Amino acid sequence: xxxxxxxxxxxxxxxxxxxxxxxxxxxxxxxxxxxxxxxxxxxxxxxxxxxxxxxxxxxxxxxxxxxxxxxxxxxxxxxxxxxxxxxxxxxxxxxxxxxxxxxxxxxxxxxxxxxxxxxxxxxxxxxxxxxxxxxxxxxxxxxxxxxxxxxxxxxxxxxxxxxxxxxxxxxxxxxx
Amino acid sequence: xxxxxxxxxxxxxxxxxxxxxxxxxxxxxxxxxxxxxxxxxxxxxxxxxxxxxxxxxxxxxxxxxxxxxxxxxxxxxxxxxxxxxxxxxxxxxxxxxxxxxxxxxxxxxxxxxxxxxxxxxxxxxxxxxxxxxxxxxxxxxxxxxxxxxxxxxxxxxxxxxxxxxxxxxxxxxxxx
Amino acid sequence: xxxxxxxxxxxxxxxxxxxxxxxxxxxxxxxxxxxxxxxxxxxxxxxxxxxxxxxxxxxxxxxxxxxxxxxxxxxxxxxxxxxxxxxxxxxxxxxxxxxxxxxxxxxxxxxxxxxxxxxxxxxxxxxxxxxxxxxxxxxxxxxxxxxxxxxxxxxxxxxxxxxxxxxxxxxxxxxx
Lengths: 176, 176, 176
Prior knowledge:
Order of helices and strands of chain A: HEHEHHHEHHE
Radius of gyration of chain A: 18 Å
Helix content of chain A: 25-40%
Strand content of chain A: 5-15%
Largest sheet of chain A: 4 strands, parallel
Shape of chain A: globular
Largest interface: A-C, 42 and 51 residues
Oligomer: homotrimer
Structural class of chain A: alpha/beta
């Protein structure tokens, strides 16, 4: 209680009266298929509700935005090792938890299809169509030697953590 | 919207004027034991503090709410494959990180018991008792062919992402 | 900063004038290297932006704060089993996703070094220097039999979930 008292200052509450819907900011850190689904389902749902929605793709999440035919190369042997482990592009997404013999992603996609749940690639396109801002993390791009032309179309400018945290002010912010 | 209207009861909104306690919304995505603990500990703590607390169980997290004797069946061979991998119910929760030979969960539960930390099942019951709203994700239920009677007692109506994001307005929202 | 400046376009800033920057609360649950990075990068970025920033280290995340020479011991055989699995201290952090033969962390650190991204240990020190409040979870410390003298310097008093949720009021709160 003592800690909280000294750290709270000047609550800003008056905005709630006329601006009921918050912004939605999703930090898409994971590239696993079972995390990409909630990233995209929440983003498209938020946008459909009229929320100003931004998805910031960082770390493993960035791979969702890399063109399918791009291989991460460069002089750097370490980047090559990363390249061996993760093939970019939505079609190759691994499933974090259940990936036995590679059957998991195929199974889940079929499962989704039968039940009318869109595939990650469809959700990504739907997100763009609904006006979701898809933003790649500049630092991760630098780390992996990726350039703008390696990324899929329809993305916003790459940004850093500062810009992301600015966007997160007065937003519902989820780290997925 | 209709669902959200009927499941919310006795909204306590006037507290925002003089006691700015936010709502707490936990998106319980993981079914791993080491994630179920923070899901339930934070939910019960929030409710005990007087925060209007909702836990939205989705994806792997939904398995925490499935009755222990329910097996996921159905005509669908893919659902059966899911059924093979995840036995529902709190007593079978796996531990994401340390599960060597299945000893991890047993060990952690004993560890918790000696130190007076409640078990996940106890925390789930405690959450219900404290007035935490436990809400299953409709889409995940459909995906896995689960019906209301397959789920444990004390749950709110299944809802979708839209209702969850409505609840998340002006809440502390955590994706766990 | 240079990156952030050049990539920002059409900033929507007018709200920031009378609505100060929110607090930033990071619940550092994971001890994996690829999660410690975003924990520390976001914390240091937030602090550098002038946000009042707190990182609450719990569960696996607590291991980041344990002195490198401390081994978790005690009479309890279960604590000893935990001790076998996780060697505390930033230098031994595992990488959640790609840890093949232990090469992952070494590779990523080198990758980061070549690209001027600070190491987790450096980021932890930078966080302290920038005024980030690093707070260990009391319950996790009890669970693992850890005392204040087992933890690195520069930490705040251990707290529980209640204090953390109080701090999270009117904050951007991320579970990482």
